[in-house]
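User
Here is a favour to ask of a fellow structure person. I am asking you to supply a protein in sequence and structure-token form. Please set it down just below, with no commentary around it:

Assistant
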Amino acid sequence: MAAVSSTSRVHDVESVAAVREFLQAAVALYRDVLALYHDGDASGEGSAVMPDDLLSAHHARLRDSVQALASVQPVAVADMPHPLTTVPGACYKVGQDLVLHLDRAISPNHESQSQPGSSFRDLWPARDVAALGARLQHLSQQFHDDIDHTFEVRRLPLLEFVAAGEQKDVWGENKDALQQEEPQEQEKEQPKMRRINIVPGDNVYIEVPIRKRATPDSIVHDYILDVLSYKSMHYREQEVTKAHSKTFEWVFQHSSPEDAEGAEHQFSTWLRGEELGPIYWITGKPGSGKSTFIRFLFDHDSTMKRLKVWAKGKPVFTAGFFFWTSGSHEQRSQAGLLRSLLHQFLSAYPELTSAAFPHLWKKLKSMDTKERVALELDFSIADLLEAFQAAIDAAMPQMNICLFIDGLDEFEGDHLAIIDFFKNLCLGEKGQSIKICLSSRPWAVFQNAFEYAVPNLRLQDLTYEDMYRYTKDRLRENTHIRRLLKNDAAAGEELIQQAVQKSDGVFLWVRLALNEMIRTFHQETGLAGLSKTVDILPIELSELFNLFFFENQDEAKLAEAAVIFSLMNARELVADFISNDAATALTVWELAFALRGSDDDEAAVKEEPKQASPTVAYERCLATISLIMKRFSGLLDVHARRASGNARGLRFSGKEDHMDEATDAAERRVTYIHRTVRDWFMEEPGVMARLVSKTPADFDPHLRLLRSYVLQMKNSLEEIEHHRQLDEWWPGIALALTHARYVQNDPDHLERTMVNEVGKTISWYWLSKPEDPYDHWARYGLGPYRVFKSAAPLWQPFLCLTTRFGLTRYVAEEVAARNAAEDEISAEKKELQTSESTPLLAYATEFLCSRKKTIFPLSDIQLVEFLIRNQCRINPGPNHDYTDFETHKPRTPWITLLRHLRDARRRNWIEYYDVDQQGTARWAEIVKLFLVGGADKEAVVVKDSWDPESTALGVLELLEGTYGAVEMRELVKMWESRV
């Protein structure tokens, strides 16, 4: 559900009064509409009598409230937020829709009213009512929280409605639209036949059916594991700091070292038996070392030793998951949790795979290799939950299970729901065979659930000795400090105690404090100087970060830090958009080509692709890592993709000739050392604004990362190879072109140049087919390989691809440039453009109402407007006839757009009472552009397996009748005025 803000005139007295009156009127209407549904249920009928009197009573009040909202709507100007993003604007939109609903419901001339047997539910469907309740609840809460705290918000009763074939997400997270329905009628697949020669040497054959051999279990098992896996599955665990020597050992030690039977820590007792229950909660302050502690427990041999006592001879399976709010979507979501746990479980016990996925297992067993390759699996939350529960149920009789789950507070979803999920796993007899160790910050939601209900510990209360040992060992790493500690033991003891006590149980504080103590140490001041350093350090982490980052750096250094931070933010945004979990954190190599200025701009254009020399790679990596460490004072870290340590393990000296070492350095990921650091940069008041103010005026992070991709491809870390495997380059291409879409600050007009360099560079690597004049790598980014043999030729595939990626400025400049050079194009090349080719306008509107889980953006109004207003040979208009790429059916961009709208309605991709500026408001404007641009008023959308034949007006009327939205009513009126 789209969020709205309190921006603009929302605090005006008139605005507040108008919103309050509307919400009260709309909620009253909703309650009566809901009552009509309940009356129909009680009577066993569909509320056959039209409730005209009841709805009429609401009509006048609602109209008045909408008129009052209309009077407070701000005038749209460039620097103001979109009206739909404000509470008054959102309420005004919903109010207009409700007035249309009431007009239709009480009008005696309405088509549905005049039909015999029509009911209230025919006019106001259940899905509509359910959406209205949810929308009003959200707007009421937003009004109370951001504008008027005196407004009373009561939980509205919601109409439970689930469409046929749709499953609810039990954790409450919005799911994408339903999978595409199967046609109502399908031809039965004919068995494949093969010819057999009856008599050798004779020309007599018979045909017999080809019998498929069942796919081996091992192949099916590996296939399912591959689908469950994701690239960032182990990243967080690898990045969690390993416990310092002897740290946390107290959890496994007895109270008296001499007495092996003495009392042990409660957690050890919990591991050994059943009496303390199936769940243990570990909590602690931010930075107290909870993730490190969970990793320590998960990896330690003593954990398994005690679990085996609990299991009483049965095998014990352990699995872990580390939620990470700074990571990919999978690292912070329920889908990632379930996929990771299932992957660990089925990797250890392959025989349970068929029990976890019985229907998929059966399906895959009957498929051949080609069919499996073509199969696209996308597990829903419901699928994963069902599979996980089935695997647990199948495993329980034969083994015990212990799960270690870190960072519940970093889960991106409903915390109450995930608490219930873990509690439900332990209900009944299952609680005797399963243990779950959970960790989180001491938030109220977790305290209420666990503090008095399950055994638990507060980490900061137990780690004083660990922090003492860590502090002492870190100080002794410095030769001069070690000598001072030895020569003046009393002063050294006082210094260590001072640092540990000031940390107040926060490992992160003492870690950063020690970095600062060692960095600023001078032999002249000795231990007294170190003590003074500790004394002036602030206790609060946020103040410590501010000291290190802002106060200890001058303006020039802050500008460099702001650039790095901006690049990291830009990558997080783009990687999340295209769901590339492996690219969320920038690598050293990516940053190395994004930090420098004009010299690298020139190199990106003039250089030819080549293999980078180890020396150049090392110089780039060393300079980049050094800059990161200096500008962020240890708040960022550099992690290896392989388990080979962190940045401190890099030894550049004497390794300049070894490309494997250069590659290892280049592939390291730049991350925040702790969640609290990222939270401070992102959420601490004033920090983000201050960083933005320090960023150079001519800098754009997306343009730099676009350029970085070009330079990476032109300085390959691997041996150059020309081939046709687009999959190898595609993730980088998708990142680069998506970064290009976000470019805003481009004073030197480099975006078009860099995008063209992407196309040229990949073409240089591409092993082309000279005999095919249409051969180009970009066409394989526009559709599956299997359709190319029979598809219409693709003209200008790279331009088509950039249109699909929504690169409005690039496409506009490129079309203009190509039109200007029209006379320079040879007749031979012009002949390659056939009328059958899919035009740019069709690609620009391909994702009109839904992204359909792709990496491509929703259709952009400005791009569509440009293409309609600038029709030319390479950009024909909305009524241009072409052949659909996959179906081979005749189409025009206008008919294709109408089909998108009809499909979106059927697949529930359009929201009722939509207040998202990227929702109905956006695509309705695109339809208007087509109407103004001369879309064929006689166009007919032919019938298919799901919908009957319809005129263009019929499609628009179908939408208006379904949603009762003001934008759709305006489209119908606009069409009728044209006719």
